[in-house]
Write a structure and sequence with these properties.
The chain has 14 helices and 20 strands.
Length: about 550
């Protein structure tokens, strides 16, 4: 990676996403927690990542796996304590890792004290102004206030016994904040300071474009064709992020924001101006099919979009909401627009392509995000019994979408059968200076016997951390080698990219100092330049040729 003294750390960082429920279980309840993260944080350091992003750990009834926050300044007992979180921040820094926490500003939990106060208030009372309460349509107010639909399926409105409705762009248990209210804005500025004061290095902002809604909450059907959506990507949201940037910039150590931005290509740069967010997730790259032409177009468009505002690109293959790359790349249709379940998958083909995609993403200019388990070559678990699924998408869609649980299955660490050492031995668990409260597991199945909260496939026995460690052909060792090379290679991370001549169906580009990356998307081997020395390949080379669905890093020699 480029010299950290020459550029801010976040412009070229490799950031590892932890989904805490599924990383490691420190107290034997079958659910991952902070104790588990602390005990196995060295895995991420040894992998070669620069930073960790942790999905929500706040107090929550877990209607949406923690994305329904009841208290933004406390850790849910399911995961641990605030003292443990503070210890984790310090231990991460001690290992040379930055730590980014998730922030969920569009909505909260129905159990948040402010929403509970709103529910207890009469229609029209001040506490309800902090959210979007409206009377219904129809003769008796029996119809929703507008035609907006929840992203989880069904109307985006829930009716109360007093006749009023409230807006929830996700589950009914997740009421949307009213960001036009100054009290909401002041509250979140204080929440930022609370965590920045405890040493976090940044925030990943959940659904960052949704905070502000169009005045009057109009029906979508009433808007002119081509009008911007009334519930997202409103121009007023940018002042919120400018105020947040001023707060972050007042702290030492380059604290950052990364936005989850499902927005049109022409909107993305507006969020990444020098006085707003530092980076935003690159979803077109994640969604692109395994195709040289399509991926080159996405790469070119991404770099062109970021250049005018001077922001670094980000590259991501998957996360806790999307189908795992091994499964996606093993299907006939390798693009990602929505979750598709039950389609035939060639796992061997998907694995080859996912390994090649990893080298491609790690060689591109900017920062890169890795979702836990990608380094193990894990696939989407699609045969989870319906009664064990916990994603609210499954319920709200009426079962037509089984949800996102398949990419959230607990990691396999060692052993020949489930639970693959997901739960720590007593000797592994770190101590804490604060007593651990009994977690509220009312929203989850009983796991008092330590059974992981979602079942792991027995076939993962060959994909555990222990099984792959030391095996040069394993996906884990590929990632370790690539990330350490990336950190040691000045050409990688932030910086320029130059496309090189290549046959149809092949992508080849150079960074600086003679570094090149070539990816073969065709069905036949292709010749490699004889003057280039291989540094690392995603699969074995074939007598100087690059096999199908394989990537190689090379160092070009002069002459």
């Amino acid at each position: 990676m480029a010299d950290p003294a020459a550029a801010p750390w976040w412009r070229g960082a490799a950031i590892y996403q932890i989904y805490p429920r599924s990383y490691a279980d420190g107290n034997g309840d079958g659910i991952g927690d902070i104790a588990g993260i602390r005990a196995r944080l060295a895995h991420i350091r040894d992998l070669g990542a620069d930073a960790v992003w942790i999905s929500p750990w706040y107090v929550s009834p877990m209607a949406d796996a923690g994305y329904d926050v009841a208290d933004y300044r406390a850790v849910d007992p399911l995961f641990g304590t605030l003292a443990e979180a503070e210890a984790l921040i310090g231990e991460a820094h001690g290992l040379g890792l930055r730590l980014i926490v998730d922030l969920v500003p569009n909505h909260c939990s129905e159990r948040h004290p402010w929403f509970q106060e709103a529910l207890a208030a009469a229609p029209g009372a001040a506490p309800r102004d902090l959210f979007h309460f409206r009377p219904g349509k129809g003769e008796h107010g029996e119809l929703p206030p507008n035609d907006w639909q929840s992203f989880f399926g069904g109307p985006a409105w829930h009716r109360l016994g007093d006749g009023e409705w409230y807006l929830h762009m996700f589950a009914p248990q997740q009421p949307d904040w009213n960001w036009d209210h100054p009290r909401v804005r002041a509250e979140f500025e204080d929440i930022l300071r609370f965590w920045l004061d405890r040493g976090v290095d940044g925030f990943r902002i959940d659904v960052a474009s949704l905070l502000v809604k169009q005045d009057g909450l109009p029906d979508k059907a009433s808007l002119p064709e081509g009008a911007p959506p009334p519930e997202a990507d409103r121009p007023e949201v940018h002042e919120i992020y400018r105020s947040w940037r001023r707060i972050a910039d007042a702290y030492d150590g380059e604290r950052i924001f990364v936005g989850e931005l499902w927005v049109p290509a022409d909107s993305l740069p507006r969020y990444l101006r020098p006085d707003e967010l530092h980076t935003g997730f690159n979803f077109p790259f994640l969604q692109a099919p395994w195709d040289a032409t399509a991926l080159r177009a996405v790469i070119d468009e991404t770099l062109a979009q970021h250049a005018p505002v001077g922001a670094p690109a980000t590259w991501v293959l998957g996360n806790h909401d999307t189908t795992r790359p091994v499964t996606r790349y093993g299907r006939t249709d390798t693009s990602y627009g929505e979750r598709r379940h039950g389609l035939p998958v060639d796992l061997a083909l998907g694995t080859r392509r996912a390994r090649a995609a990893a080298l491609l993403s790690l060689a591109l200019p900017g920062s890169v995000y890795l979702y836990q388990g990608e380094e193990l070559g894990l696939w989407e678990v699609e045969d989870i019994p319906p009664q064990l699924r916990q994603d609210p998408t499954a319920t709200q869609s009426g079962g037509t979408d089984p949800g996102r649980d398949g990419c959230r299955v607990p990691l396999p660490w060692s052993g020949d059968e489930p639970p693959f050492a997901f739960t720590l031995e007593a000797s592994e668990a770190p101590g804490t200076s604060e007593a651990r409260a009994t977690p509220d597991t009312s929203a989850t199945p009983d796991h008092t016997d330590g059974t992981p909260w979602l079942p792991q496939p027995p076939a993962w026995k060959d994909h555990t951390v222990a099984a792959q460690t030391g095996d040069p052909a394993s996906t884990l060792e590929l990632y370790r080698t690539a990330l350490h090379l990336r950190r040691a290679t000045p050409a990688l991370g932030d910086g320029p990219l130059t496309w090189l001549p290549a046959p149809e169906g092949v992508l080849s580009f150079a960074r600086t100092d003679g570094f090149t990356c070539t990816v073969n998307f065709t069905t036949a081997p292709v010749e490699l330049p004889p003057s280039a020395r291989p540094l690392l390949s995603s699969g074995p080379l074939d007598e100087g040729k690059l096999p199908p669905d394989t990537a190689v890093w090379q160092s070009r020699t002069s002459g």
